[in-house]
Sequence to fold (773 residues):
Amino acid sequence: MLVAENLHKTYRRHAVRVPVLNGLNLEVKAGEFLSVVGASGSGKSTLLHLLGTLDAPDAGRVLLDGRRVDDLPGRERDALRNRTFGYIFQFYHLLPELNVLDNVLMPAYIGHSVVGWWKSRSRWRARALELLRKVGLTHRLAHRPRELSGGEMQRAAVARALLTNPRVLLADEPTGNLDAGTGGEIVRLLRDLNREDGVTIVMVTHNLEIVSATDRVVRMVGGVVTEDTPATPRPFPHPRLAAV
Amino acid sequence: MYKLLLCLRYLRTRYLAFICIVSVMLGVATLIVVNAVMSGFSTKLKDRLHGVLSDVVVDTDRPDGFVECDADGYPVPQRDEHGRVVFGPDGNPVPVPLSPEKAIERILASPAGPRIAAVTPTIESFAVLQFQFRGQTLTKPVRLIGVDPKGRAAVGGFSEYLVRQAGAEAPSFDLTTDALDRHDWNRHRAARSRVTEVPDFPPPKKLPPLPGFPDLPAPAPPVADLLAPPPPDQAAMNAQMPDARPAGVILGYTIAHFRYKDASGQVVEERALQPGDGVTVFAPGGEAGGMRPVWGSFLVTDYLKTEMSEYDQSFVYVPLEDLQRVRTMQGRCTAFQLRLKDYDRDKAFVTDQLRALFHPRSGAQVATWEERQGSLLAAIDVEKGILNLLLFLIVGVAGFSILAIFTMIVSEKYRDIGVMKSLGASSSGVMSIFVGYGLLLGAVGCALGTGLGLAITDNINGIERFLTEATGKAVFPRDVYYFKEIPTNVEPLRVLFVNLGAVGIAVVFSLLPAWRAARLHPVRALRFE
Ligand SMILES: Nc1ncnc2c1ncn2[C@@H]1O[C@H](COP(=O)(O)OP(=O)(O)O)[C@@H](O)[C@H]1O
Ligand SMILES: [Mg+2]
Fold:
């Protein structure tokens, strides 16, 4: 469904060229929970940004359902990010001025004019409340992000990413800042979403422990995919045990 | 939608927003207060400058008043019964005088006539005023003006400034009984002091007869001249004389009062001339070609208080007919004061018409009050221009502080901008958040600033008193400005301009940071942690 073809990306810092992706190829299948592993600095985040049209590759193509998306005009890429892709970041990246509910509703706010929002607000609120119930944050609706723990913030971020019913969830080290227990909960949440709602998930991590919950693992070295294996069908450890 | 939400949310929660609002608020309040005070000063000053001047003045430089002139504007000479030109003591022909009644008739008959609301003749001359104060004789140079008080009041700029007869429709030079009593008391005191001062001379002694000269008999009383007319009947003559009516004088307030600072620094005002006190004025006589000094005595009846020091320290009004008598120019005058029905509309037309009637070659000139105060009015304009320049600089400073604060706000929001873009916000959307934020800050700051500015303007005199008490130094020294209060004048249009300008500046100076925010690459923003 989501295909990366021969992606090249080089950062330029003054005169220094930092080649990050060197002809990377990857295919993400619909309904798949894919994890991308690799050393820090191997270009995992860069790959996610390119897949989600936040950044443009120097060469190569990104295709969604066979349609090229990396060179679309800005307006259409904005719409794609708003509806088709959902992002989850390592540092949660909630807006500090807004409460949990408003943060979760943010994609709907962005996608609508004032009038459009006014007309559809009850539908969106119902959707947001349902997601918050799913992630277990119903009791923290009016809290500001800084009043939440890391796990709760990440769960709010997951709810935000899911609000517009995206087809692809792009998670950049969602557990990177969490202890093993809360990290495990987040991964279980993603696992359930993938199983029950059929959301396609691309998750970047360097925690090999949580990789086992996913369908497929790709390893990145030197800006290309070097290894592509189905994950070992190992039962995901109970969060209590993992925390020990 | 998110733009509005974030603007409002940022406004409520950002500390920097508060600073920004305060700086806009202070700027707007300052502009409103300064403008109100400046406009108050200038309108009050303009009022004062208009003051005792009537809308339009026709006056002549001839000491003997207006004269008839021919088509070319040259004076028409008087001729005796033989048709010979009459010459004056200076060797110049004596022109035919133009009586005030005739001149006013001509003015009102001219095309300008229907636009004139009132006109009155006056005599104006420089003079020296002399009076007694605590056993000394003091003199002051003054402008002596002979007026018909009722007619002068109709022209405006006269009775509203009188102290006793303030605003009277028909003011007069009549003395109150108190003033007459004071006059009597003064006379008695003078008489008493003369009696005590004059020493008793011994009666002349009869000189002893010179030797060798016989003692002559006393001369015989003169024999009545039978042909001589009978001695005048004193009582009959007195009956023919007009009543010895004491002529009143209205003095400029400063002439009659001394102001000085006492040892404690307080301004003290002392009245030197009470109503009923006598003054003497010396003026040049009103003959053609002569400069014979003349004088007359008057009793103080009222004061003129315009609060324009120039007028208050030099203007002296006396009845027109008395000045005509003193200057021996009965049936003549040296100026006409006019009030127009609509000054701003008609001033050019009326002055043109009057210039056709009173030719400059005959010594006459026509001027509006603005032309007479030209240099002072120009000074006010220059002052306003400089002030506006300074205010513009203040606005510039405020604008740059907005720019600085906005740049800070944007850089603080780098990460959030990246997040919003990752959620599908467009660059123009991000830009409009910050421009809208600038607009909102500007609008809130303006609203608060307008409120604060108007409140300060309203209470500026209380604030000034408080500051004076707190610092012990007069912020607004009243003896310098001659205003009782700091004058203010809030012009709604100007307040509107200040508000629009401030909002505009807030928006303009938020454009650059907003543009930077919009251009920000989302990925780079997201790498901020
Ligand atoms: N804006 C940039 N300019 C220069 N180098 C960059 C920039 N962004 C990322 N890099 C470099 O690109 C490499 C890949 O970064 P990233 O995709 O974040 O790796 P990962 O997520 O796997 O840790 C890193 O070495 C990083 O230093
Ligand atoms: Mg990374």
